[in-house]
Amino acid sequence: MHAHPHEPHRSGRVGWLRAAVLGANDGIVSTASLIVGVAAAGSSRQAIILAGLAGLVAGALSMAAGEYVSVSSQADTEDADLAMEQRQLHLLPEAELDELTEIYVQRGLEPALARQVAEQLTAHDALAAHARDEIGITDELRARPLQAALASAAAFAAGAVLPLLAVLLAPLARIEWVVPAASLLALALLGALAARAGGASIARGVLRVVFWSALAMTTTGLIGRLFGS
Question: Does the residue 3 lie in any domain?
Fold first, then answer.
């Protein structure tokens, strides 16, 4: 008799995958677009690098602040829900037990078995049972503002480094073309990896990220040429 093999599921990757891809993608696109716009205006390499560094720092801090505020709001909501559930468990334990039983009945258990499961889980950790099965809050998926902020900032900075490296290595006259080419190549690879990790279509993931990124870089390049001196 062989044990049933563990089946890996991709849904557990959604949270960190989304944050990492969004941060790195933003870092590449925002910094590369800024660099292309400044380069198209005929700026010096020093000015281009300064603009890229400013974009990296500002973007990373902006991502961190936005993520921290957003996830903090989620954490506040979760804390409020848990506090309310704790009060209900203290004031109306039988009603809460009935509520948990009904949840398991709706999920397909026989009423007697649902009651038994509800009683055992309540005896073990009533708040955890209600948090998980009534509210949908688990320890693994709890909102962590500081962790989310640091991860977003790091991902953005990691992405922004690539177009800056292209600026340092490319001839000044070619920066306007080398940076978009290198950035789009990295974005295509990032889109492919994200699609593969998430079990989605690789071709669609690559096409989506490359199209919108190329549009952003082209637009800023045109603005740089139009208004640059």
Answer: no
